[in-house]
Design a protein that fits this description.
Chain A: InterPro entries: ExoRNase_PH_dom1, ExoRNase_PH_dom2, ExoRNase_PH_dom2_sf, PNPase/RNase_PH_dom_sf, Ribosomal_Su5_D2-typ_SF, RNase_PH. Chain A: It is found in: Cytoplasm; Nucleus, Nucleolus. Chain A: Belongs to the RNase PH family. Chain A: Pfam families: RNase_PH, RNase_PH_C. The complex is a heterodimer of chains A (about 220) and B (about 240). Helix content of chain A is about 30%, strand content about 35%. Chain A contains four helices and ten strands; from the N terminus they run βββββαβαββαββα. In chain A, the strands form two sheets. Chain A has a six-stranded mixed beta sheet. In chain A, strands 8-7-9-10 form a four-stranded antiparallel beta sheet, with helices on both faces. In chain A, strand 3 and strand 4 form a beta hairpin. In chain A, helix 1 crosses helix 2. Helix content of chain B is about 20%, strand content about 30%. Chain B contains five helices and 16 strands. The radius of gyration of chain B is 22 Å and the shape is flat. Chain B starts with a helix and ends with a helix. Classes of the chains: A alpha+beta (about 220), B alpha+beta (about 240). The interface between A and B is medium-sized, with 34 and 23 residues.
């Protein structure tokens, strides 16, 4: 059930990525997502029991836990957990399971640091699909880097990320291609932001196509 | 009649992802009359105003005359009314047992919901017992409730069971295949050796055969037959039958 796809260098220039589903036996859904050098393993439990202190009376409680490859989770992981949690809350139909919990656990598989938030979100989406949780739409995440001379690079390598002037990550939904979550670092102009969003929307279509093919196995 | 069914028909048997939409625009007919059609949307499909959205990934299936649903793979059970499940008794508090059915909440089982139970004649249920019961109340807003009698007051196979034997968990898809009326898996398994089998819709299966080894063999066969085609399964069962004789 693993698929590796090599995308040709079209307008979006995405690198190869791969995905495997249902590889863990204990969680209700699991998936790995490999993007270039970065690989992340996601496990989903839900809808499961929730502590009374955390329960919400009309919707499910989403919890995301990120475990880096080495060391203990720190503040950076907490920030990424929040981004992932808000994207999941937008995509899942939480009102179907009130007073229960959906837990997503992400484990970094590689030491490479490039495109981590993107890879996290893609792995989360595939794992949620594998667990059979009801979703109103899918989401995927694209990273753009703006280099010092103003060129916009999608799917940057670690070197390109370090040398870039700004780094933008967007989560895009599958139905109307709206931006669900954006996380940016660095300085850029409004026009550059809009161009990045447009490019990410086009790139997201490729990723959704990849989701569709990997589910068809 | 045709527009809505045609929209669905072209996707029957195809893999659909959450977010795929079937939108219907009623054609404007000359005399202004609109025929109303009824479609039953099963699990995995949700109505969103004038359109039907897919909310789980899976294959679109169709049953005559007008039922459509998404066949998806899942391991987690969500209680639904009328389904028979195997539960494990976790606590006994007053007049009610709390039973773990594998969902997000524990179900409650009243001590009067057994055949022949009265206030003086309490059923003999201990913590850790296996119970086979049906849901009378199971929706997202309330705590699920189990009973071990049917509407006439008879047990009908439900109640406490499992003095020996082995309980294990499988996926919901395999359970549905086992409970289908002419299940091939069960027919193939019967030929190997006799055994007792209780299948709960929550993915739990209880097996008991004459010896411990036979029980373990049946358990392993059921767990592996999840991902096999029927041919592979039949060859495997034949090998096991010859090996055990």
């Amino acid at each position: 059930m693993s698929i590796m796809m090599e995308l040709d260098r079209g307008c979006s220039n995405l690198r190869e990525y791969g995905n495997e589903q249902s590889l863990l036996s204990k969680p209700d859904g699991s998936s790995t997502f490999v993007q270039g050098d970065t690989s992340i393993l996601a496990g989903v439990y839900g809808p499961a029991e929730v502590k009374v202190s955390k329960e919400i009376y009309d919707r499910a409680t989403v919890e995301v836990l990120i475990q880096p490859k080495m060391g203990l989770p720190g503040v950076r992981e907490r920030a990424r957990e929040q981004c992932a949690r808000e994207t999941c809350e937008a995509a899942l139909l939480l009102t179907l399971h009130p007073r229960s919990s959906v837990t997503v656990i992400l484990q970094f598989g590689s030491l490479s640091n490039c495109q981590l938030p993107s890879c996290c979100l893609n792995a989360t989406c595939m794992a949620l699909m594998d667990a059979g949780l009801p979703m109103s739409h899918l989401f995927c995440s694209v990273t753009c880097a703006i280099s010092k001379d103003g060129q916009i690079i999608t799917d940057p390598t670690a070197l390109q990320e370090k040398e870039s002037r700004a780094l933008l990550t967007f989560a895009i939904d599958s139905v109307e291609h709206n931006v669900l979550m954006s996380s940016t670092k660095g300085s850029f102009s409004l026009q550059e932001l809009q161009r990045c969003i447009a490019i990410s929307q086009r790139a997201s279509e490729q990723i959704f196509q990849f989701y569709r093919e990997s589910v068809k196995r | 009649m045709d527009t809505i069914h045609a929209c669905f028909k072209e996707k029957i048997g195809e893999v659909l992802l959450p977010g795929d939409v079937f939108s219907f625009r009623l054609p404007e007919s000359g005399d202004g009359s609109i025929k109303s059609e009824k479609i039953i949307c099963g699990p995995g499909l949700r109505r969103n105003g004038e359109e039907v959205r897919v909310c789980k990934s899976g294959i679109l299936r169709h049953k005559q005359p007008n039922m459509y649903w998404i066949d998806s793979q899942q391991r987690r059970y969500v209680p639904a009314k009328g389904e028979s499940v195997i539960g494990i008794v976790t606590t006994k508090s007053g007049d009610v047992f709390k039973v773990d059915v594998g969902g997000s909440e524990q179900a409650s089982l009243s001590y009067l919901a057994f055949e022949g139970a009265t206030k003086r004649n309490r059923p003999n249920v201990q913590v850790g017992d296996l119970v086979y019961g049906q849901f009378t109340i199971a929706n997202k807003d309330m705590e699920p409730e189990l009973v071990c009698i049917d509407s006439c007051g008879r047990a009908n196979g439900m109640g406490v069971f499992g003095a020996d034997g082995l309980l294990f968990k499988v996926s919901l898809g395999l359970v549905r295949r086992l409970l289908a009326p002419q299940s091939e898996i069960i027919k193939d398994l019967e030929k190997i050796f006799p055994f007792e089998l209780v299948v709960g819709m929550n993915g739990r299966v209880w097996v008991k055969a004459k010896t411990v080894q036979q029980t373990l063999i049946v358990t392993n066969l059921l767990e592996t037959s999840e991902n096999m085609t029927s041919q592979q399964r039949q060859t495997l069962f034949k090998r096991v039958a010859e090996g055990s004789l």
